[in-house]
Amino acid sequence: MVKDINLWFPRNQTKAAEPNDWKRKPMPEKNTRIVFEKGYNEQEMEKIKWGFIPEQMEDKWFIFWKDNKLHFHRSWTGICIYIVNFQKEQNNKYSIKDAIINRDPEQYKSTDDEYDKKLILYIIDTLLIGKPSVFPSSNPDSPETALKKWALMGRGK
Length: 157
Known about the structure:
This protein is α+β, with helices and mostly antiparallel strands. The chain has 3 helices and 5 strands, in the order E-H-E-E-E-E-H-H.
């Protein structure tokens, strides 16, 4: 596990996130599965497995690793938005194989699989790994995009 979390992300999280560290609801029955593949090296996986425990209202996600799955819950409501399935490969590398996405319109408004795929990767890159990434938007410099980014990410990037 990561020895010094502050080397890559300036926050006070002192342990890896666990399911009972925050309120959470199960993935609803209305969901979809999308298949995609993205690989991560051993150092990136250490950071991904660390997850994310919100510290203040501006932290929009609670993310934890369990049984080779990364669970994404909205911090205010506990609603499960994504469950990303990883597969361990050779040399301690992992790959995303697919993701289950909440499609209950009362819990999550998005219906665009490609957008959700990009958002998952963006959250992993910025919030968990701590590397720069471009927020998924067709017009990244617009005020609307800035508001959407704040609503989805808060102070997380």
